[in-house]
Amino acid sequence: MTAANAWMRHALTTVAAVLATTLVAAGLVMATSSTATASESIATRWTPDTYEKKVRSWINHERAAHGMSQLTFVKCATRTATKWSQHLADTDEFYHQDMGHVLDACNAYYAGETLGRGNISPRRLVHLWMDSPGHRAVLLSKYAQRVGIGSMVDSHGQWLTAANFVKL
Fold first, then answer.
1. Is the C-alpha dihedral spanning 140, 141, 145, 150 positive or negative?
2. In Å, how far are 8, 33, 36, 67, 139 from 3, measured between CA atoms?
3. Which of 66, 76, 147, 167 could form a disulfide with 110 if both were Cys (CB 3.0 to 4.6 A apart)?
4. pTM of the full predicted structure?
5. Contact 93, 156 (CB under 8 A)
6. Does position 111 have pLDDT exceeding 70, yes or no?
7. Pairing state of beta strands 110-118 and 159-167?
């Protein structure tokens, strides 16, 4: 790696870390339902694979509405998002992972992350992200080319979703 490439990667890692910190400061998306019946119906309506595909579809819908290119799934970001959402579900925690890990795992030049938890549909999740300035910036980033999404139902019956956006 040349000195210029090393500097660029360091600069982008720093930007990703600042972006992740901004997202935490902006507030994480959490939505809850007041009834167990609503919780059960949302949690059982989709498989994780279907939920993730619908989240990506709604992300791409929003990107298209703003003149942005669509994102395709990429295995490395899907693996990091899936592992992270599983960790958060298992530990009942909710915070962003180190974007340096995503950059390294994908050999990427840009990484951003959005998180969501709640008894909500994929459409509602993306709508909530779009209403949050920090999350909206990641969804509509001109640097993002690919996305990986990990979604699962946690012990409270809520969808927990991590979406990792990368530029390879």
1. negative
2. 9, 52, 56, 35, 30
3. 167
4. 0.78
5. no
6. yes
7. antiparallel
Which pLDDT tens digit goes with each residue over 65-91?
Answer: 999 999 999 999 999 999 999 999 999
- Higher per-residue pLDDT: 27 or 69: 69
Asked if 150 contacts 77 with a C-beta cutoff of 8 angstroms, the reply is no
Of 138, 2, 133, nearest to 59 by C-alpha is 138
Cα(92)–Cα(97) distance, integer angstroms: 14
Is it the case that residue 33 has pLDDT exceeding 80? no
**Residue 75, by phi and psi: left (phi above 0), alpha (psi -120 to 50) or beta?**
alpha
Check whether 153 has a pLDDT greater than 60: yes
CA distances from 84 to 28, 102, 108 (A): 15, 10, 18
